[in-house]
Amino acid sequence: MSVVALVPAAGRGVRLGLSRPKALVPVKGESLLLRAVRGLLGSGCVQHVVVASPPDQVEVVAAELATLPNAHVVPGGAERTDSVRLALGAVAEVAPDAHVVLVHDAARCFTPASMIRDVVSAVEAGAPAVVPVLPVTDTIKKVDELGVVVETVDRAPLRAVQTPQGFNIDVLRQAYASAGDIATDDAGLVERVGGKVHVVEGHPDALKITTAFDLAVAEAVLAAEESSPSD
Ligand SMILES: Nc1ccn([C@@H]2O[C@H](COP(=O)(O)OP(=O)(O)OP(=O)(O)O)[C@@H](O)[C@H]2O)c(=O)n1
Ligand SMILES: C[C@](O)(CO)[C@H](O)COP(=O)(O)O
Q1: Ligand positioned closest to the Cα atom of 11
Q2: Domain 2-129+162-227 - what CATH class?
């Protein structure tokens, strides 16, 4: 039995605004993707990784990961969900004995190993689906189409969701087979087919690098971790 991680990395990074796909953008000389995949394989609980690459960059991405054993590359799709679906389709060949599947954004490349292990452990303990979460710290308001506040939402039960998200592999396959096409995260598809999604504690270091500001934050996180490694 093995754990396989799917890494959707086929996005263009429009909000980051650089000339290359976001996953290939370097932070201190190493790409987000290389850092993310090495983090998964180095966590000690992931045996295989399937990366969904920008379709026109498959060879570049394969070369980027050439030093990592058990990292496989497939062409991604137009939306994140399409990329995950394509990577999931490769699992039967790449890791036929997989019982747990993680889905992890290349853009969350500083995720602590302990958080990856927590997600895997929760699935192995019997949860069909697991997401790491953080409490919401801002006040949250609903606004109408005119930009007027209609409600202040009680934030106590709200959580911001990170990746890796972990699944019993049959549960994720069933969700992708029957839940329809678009969701902003993979657990959302499981929810749609009535599956129970459990939570574990997330971590601020698992931020999703989306904007130039996030990239600057990532540089700072890396500098801090290099000066006092915790994992
Ligand atoms: N068609 C897509 C779109 C996104 N992703 C991946 O999904 C993750 C989360 O998406 P996001 O952070 O929004 O990345 P981008 O889509 O690249 O960003 P943007 O929306 O700014 O273009 C990223 O690792 C991204 O590469 C993907 O594999 N396939
Ligand atoms: C999957 C995700 O990272 C969970 O927070 C997030 O939903 C991805 O959203 P994006 O709009 O594709 O960046």
Answers
A1: 1
A2: alpha beta
ipTM for the complex?
0.95
How many residues are present in the chain?
231
Q: So what's the pLDDT on residue 229?
A: 64
Rounded to the nearest angstrom, the distance between the alpha carbon of 185 and the centre of ligand 2 is 6
**Nearest bound ligand to the CA of residue 80:** 1
Residues 6+ away with beta carbon under 8 Å from 137:
none
Q: What would the two tokens of residue 69 be? A: 């054993």
Ordered by start, the domain boundaries in the chain are 2-129+162-227
pLDDT at 129: 98
CA dihedral 20→23→24→26, nearest 10 degrees, is 110
Q: How far apart are CA 78 and CA 81, in angstroms?
A: 8
Q: Which residues of the chain have pLDDT under 70?
A: 181, 229-231
107 lines ligand 1 (CB under 6 A): yes
| 87-141 per-position pLDDT tens digit | 999 999 999 999 999 999 999 999 999 999 999 999 999 999 999 999 999 999 9
Mutate which of 6, 18, 22, 60 for ligand 1? The one with the most ligand atoms within 8 Å of its CB, which is 22
Q: Is 133 in the pocket of ligand 2 (CB under 6 A)?
A: no
Is there an atom of ligand 2 within 6 Å of 159 CB? no
Quickly tell me which residue has 């790449």 as its tokens.
Answer: 94
Kindly state if the Cβ of 14 falls inside 6 Å of ligand 2: no
Tokens standing for 10?
Answer: 């086929």
- According to DSSP, residue 23 is labeled G
